[in-house]
Amino acid sequence: MQEQILANATAGESTALSQPRPRSARFLRRLIRRPLALIGAVIVLLFLLTAVFGPMLAPHNPDYLDYSAVLAHPSASYPFGTDDTGRDILSRIIAGARISLTVGLVAVGTAMIIGTLVGLFAGYLGGWVDQVIMRLADVLLAFPDILLAIVIIAILGPGLVNVMIAVGVSAIPVYVRTVRAAVLSVREQEFVEAARALGASSWRIMWSHILRNVTAPIIVLATLGVGLSILTAAGLSFLGLGAQPPTPEWGDMLNEAQTYLQQAWWMAVFPGAAIMLVVIGLNLLGDGLRDLLDPTIN
């Protein structure tokens, strides 16, 4: 009896050892093997934590006007210096992380949802639906993203919410074309033909079989798109079309700094470095995800 119990336990251990590792463990192992992607993930995580816990991290109130420290050099009291009204640059950059990341995530989320749905319909249905959708996408793609966003802002008016709308709308055609191309290749696969032969409806095929197999390029595009959206939103704010003072948005901070480049270099350098770092981090993470989600790469 004891021998049988021991044999069963040994068999159980060997079965447990032979089971494949969870997907999350394999994903992390592959991520660690790509140092640039790991660096990008760390940078993005740091900015996300800054955005979430910003009020607790900021050494000063980002809107407090200290007229006794106007254009103060970086020091122990003000590590990144102050601006032309005595506001702490570090505190405003920390507060701006939440604004910039929110703009990027909302804009990309809007573009991803609308673009994915439209591209899915265009790729699967084909025919005149595909032709109409793709011609409209071509018209929008004929305009540079920033120019199209400026046109939308000119119609809606300046403001942070309108920036999210403008940046999101300008990014929709890219998602439409990407998803459509992926759907065109997936819809001819054997498992889709088998589902069709078994009598599955078009809706079920699109949602249950095709969409789940085109998520990888969508995730990669969205990761890269957040960085581009942050950069576009900062450019609009720099032109005075985005966040309005005294909102601590990085692009608006650069706009305020251009008058004092020779007197107070820190007003432009530190907000510009924040934009550069978050965009680089998102690009590195996006490139790493592209390799990790590619089934042809081990």
Structural overview:
The chain has helices at 2-18, 23-32, 35-52, 54-57, 89-125, 127-141, 145-156, 160-186, 190-197, 202-210, 215-238, 250-257, 266-292. The longest helix is centred in the middle third of the chain and has 37 residues, at 89-125. It has 298 residues and is mainly alpha-helical. α9 packs antiparallel against α10 (202-210). It has one domain (38-50, 89-292): MetI-like fold (Orthogonal Bundle). It is built from 13 helices and no strands. It is elongated and about 75 Å long.
Summarize the structure.
Helices cover 72% and strands 0% of the residues. The chain is mainly α. The chain has a single domain, classed as MetI-like fold.
List keywords for this structure.
single chain; 298 residues; mainly alpha; MetI-like fold; 13 helices; elongated; disordered N terminus
Could you describe the largest sheet, including whether it forms a barrel? Answer: none
Q: Quickly count the domains.
A: 1
Rounded Rg: 25 Å
Number of strands: 0
Share of residues in strands:
under 5%
Superfamily (CATH H level) name: MetI-like
Helix run count? 13
Between the first and last Cα atoms, what is the distance in angstroms? 46 Å
Content-based structural category: mainly alpha
List the helices and strands and how they pair.
Blueprint lengths: L1 H17 L4 H10 L2 H18 L1 H4 L31 H37 L1 H15 L3 H12 L3 H27 L3 H8 L4 H9 L4 H24 L11 H8 L8 H27 L6
Helix pairs in contact: 3-5, 3-13, 5-6, 5-8, 5-11, 5-13, 6-8, 7-8, 8-11, 9-10, 11-12, 11-13, 12-13
